[in-house]
Amino acid sequence: MYPRAIPENRPLSRFAYGLLVALVLALWLLPLFAVIMTSFRSFDDVMAGNYWGWPSKIQVFENYAAVFQQSKMLDYFLNSLIITIPSTIAVLVLSTMTGFVLSRYPFPGAMVIFALFVGGNFLPQQIMMIPIRDLMVATGLYDTFWALILFHVAFQTGFATLFMRNFIAALPSELFQAARAEGASPWQTLIHIVAPLVRPALAALAILVFTFIWNDYFWAVVLTQSDAVKPVTAGLSNLRGEWVSQWNIVSAATILVAVPPVLMFFLMQKHFISGLTMGAVKG
Amino acid sequence: MTIWWRRHRNWLTPALLLAPGLFLFLVVIIWSSLETFWISFFDWDGMGVKTWVGLANYRELLDDPQFYVSLKNNLIWLLMFLLAPPAGLAIAFLVNQKIAGMRVMKSLFFMPLVLATVTVGVIFTWFYDPTFGLLALLFRAFGAEAPALLSNEHLVTFAVVASALWPQIAFCMVLFLAGLNNLDEELIGAGRVDGARGLAMLWHVVLPQLTQVAFIAVAITIVGALRSFDAISVMTAGGPFGSSTTLAYQMYEQSLFSYRFGYGAAIATILFLIMAVFIAWYLRGLIRAEKGA
């Protein structure tokens, strides 16, 4: 282990070290903490610059109610769910299939296809903005949920393929040899051998892809216009324009946007970390 | 039919399984990226007829002062973003101890990574606000007046990049923590026996084992820097007076607000060329690792 572990028999140093880390952490999360606190405050406090003192009046309920009732954040929130959940499921299905083929059926050109998936995923997304927007306008999908779903599924399939290919490639090859010896078809192999074994990978991938799509802002502003389809990230940006210096309301809305990914992260933390590192480090 | 299927299923099934994902990715992502080059040779308002103008968009770009502002800002993004891997490594070292409560603290360190870039942008806009912001408050505590970072054309890009660094450092930390978990204990033990400590240990024993992780952290950081858009859009919209644009943002603005899609495509092409160098470098490393394995 590096750095050298602080020995168990020095409880005082261990405690002091823990305190030091907690201090750094407090500084690290200071901006976030301030926003959470502000979402509890009244506008008078915000105007008076009372950020750290005790709120003159705690109005958690009022602030969040204002976000729900006086803005369209709730609609945007539902839009985000409508876009994110089906996209995530589609990515999982598609990438299990592509990952399975690319890891278990070597054929000439497989490496090129794999490199395309990975390389395409590394492109700055702005490069493809103009043709994709044009494609969505031409097909009548522009400013519908489908535009965002279609794009996200296509784009995330690149990363997800890398991820699933690496995971399936690491499964013991004896399993696949045995299946072949038994005369199992590729489809049977996929359903009976691969599908049950990739569940942990799928859990990790699901959280990552969900977070990526939920947090997307660029495509939300490029491919949607109307409030009926706008996801919550673009909605937050609008709301900030409307509620200019009412930071207590803006803060409440900001927290609302952050809740689903943060919740996912804490509920399935192990999967999240292993996902990020598996996807990246093994690649 | 069934006999025919049985005979060919061993290659047909894989082909059919690969097809939907590959088709979607090729058509939407790869094809669109290539089409951008083509569009860059036209004058186009995004709806009407495209008029062929050859290299005119590129010639105009070379005379466009805004292009150089974007280029310079992209360079600032890139250089400042490269602080993320070492900073992430430092935090990873800091939290790599098995002490009560450390696990919770580790995950709290990851938090900025899960937040949307828009969320981060809003948080930092507020943080930087010269009258109400936290930074102004800190300055006042020391009796100084806070600079209005986001409306100062010389400081604005630095302020925006600093906000985007926050999640990026968290990302690098996650990667390095995984790397630290996979360190070869025997090598470290041997190093300790040989009397390597502190920096010497870090330099000769630990860092060489982290090169692959570091490679990925740097690659992801570079892509992140070149992709920079969200933070700029949320915090400054390219301002004040276009002083905080990057290539990605300028392209967006030229296309969607000025309806100059051909010109926007030319900017995107330049961005691609810069990026292509890094993608080639990354893929080379990836394929080399693949062959070595």
From TrEMBL, chain A:
Keywords: Cell inner membrane, Cell membrane, Membrane, Transmembrane, Transmembrane helix, Transport. Residues 77-268 form the ABC transmembrane type-1 domain. InterPro entries: MetI-like, MetI-like_sf. The keyword Cell inner membrane applies. The chain crosses the membrane at residues 12-37, 76-95, 107-124, 144-168, 189-214, 247-268. It is found in: Cell inner membrane; Cell membrane. It is a multi-pass membrane protein. One of its GO terms (cellular component) is plasma membrane. GO terms for biological process: transmembrane transport. Belongs to the binding-protein-dependent transport system permease family. This is sn-glycerol-3-phosphate transport system permease protein UgpE. It comes from Rhizobium straminoryzae. The gene is ugpE.
From TrEMBL, chain B:
InterPro entries: ABC_transporter_permease, MetI-like, MetI-like_sf. The keyword Cytoplasm does not apply. The keyword Transport applies. Pfam families: BPD_transp_1. Keywords: Cell membrane, Membrane, Transmembrane, Transmembrane helix, Transport. The chain crosses the membrane at residues 12-34, 75-95, 107-128, 155-180, 201-226, 261-283. Its main location: membrane. It is a multi-pass membrane protein. It is found in: Cell membrane. One of its GO terms (biological process) is transmembrane transport. GO terms for cellular component: plasma membrane. Residues 70-284 form the ABC transmembrane type-1 domain. Belongs to the binding-protein-dependent transport system permease family. This is Sugar ABC transporter permease.
